Prior knowledge:
This protein is an alpha+beta fold and 371 residues long. It has helices spanning 2-32, 99-125, 133-159, and strands spanning 38-44, 46-50, 53-68, 74-79, 86-87, 92-96, 161-163, 168-170, 180-181, 188-203, 215-219, 228-239, 245-252, 264-270, 275-281, 292-303, 306-322, 325-330, 337-341, 352-354.
Amino acid sequence: MTIMLVAVGLVFAAVFGFEAFRARMIQKAIAGLRNPPQTVSTIKASTERWQDRLEAVGSMRAEKGADLSPQVSGIVKAIHFASGQRVEEGAMLVELEDADDIAHLHALEATMALAQLNFDRDSRLVKTDAISQQTADTDQATLKNNQAQVAQQQALVNYKSIRAPFAGRLGIRKVDLGQYIAPGTPIVTLQQLDPIFVDFYLPQQALAKIKVGQAVTAKVDTYPDQTFNGQILAINPLVNTASRNVQVRATFKNPDEKLLPGMFATVDIEVGAPKDYVTLPKTAIYYNSYGDIAYLVENAGKGENGQQQTARQVFVKTGQTRGDQVAVLDGVKPGDIVVTVGQNKLHNGSPVRINNKVAVPFSANPQVSEE
């Protein structure tokens, strides 16, 4: 009996010892599978003073611009301009063949001269009752008809000469000497470039913040380092019912003619007083359909290697952006340590290791490098 009891005790001891050993090994294995610290880049949140502004995109158009074309058909007899030339108002540009029209005009002028003589003679004779008043009235009507025909033919002759309707710069010539052109055939474009307009659209909510005469700045990618200053010239009194946007036109001085019609421009309008905003790099915000997220780095107490840092997920409300920066309206306070790179590896409570050897872009006016 004693031997049997000792044997049973040894078996139970072996079983319980094995289970304890297995539990310890499983615990060590689970501990080894815990999330290792993730390497991230961070930045310390700070405030910057920003001037609130409205941003829009628009297109440029000349104050006066027209594609010149003839009103009548004909053969090009003479061309009096060169492509790209500056011309004054009324300058002769193109002449069409008009010999037949001028000959017809001279014939009508001769008929009108005869009608004038008859009317002058009848005016003297009617005073002496040599002819009836009806005859004098008929000759007067004939004279007026002939005068109208001469004026009509003179207008047709004038149509054969295409002149500049205003001063400006000509484009590239589209017709050649001796070419037959029909009415409406484009000859050349004429644009008055100083001043120049920029048309853009703003949402109807912005109407309370803008007014005629308000300062406007514009930039074009042709001159990335230059800003052009102008002012609002007009606000369309009609809001588009489909987009709920309103058209706005600004005018800019353009003495050096750097700005050309058709250019794409970005427009900024400063509104209100400057405000202080918490600003972060755009890479610090993780955008989701259910809300924008940022990760804050916090100390989680003592760990195996001393102070341990973890990531805490917070929802943020973002405002306007400028260059590489974004304004955070809620969720981040000045002095918070915010993850800028590596958010896709994190979840709430993940241990992190900070490495800021490579700085993320953080400029309100980034410069484009050609390298």
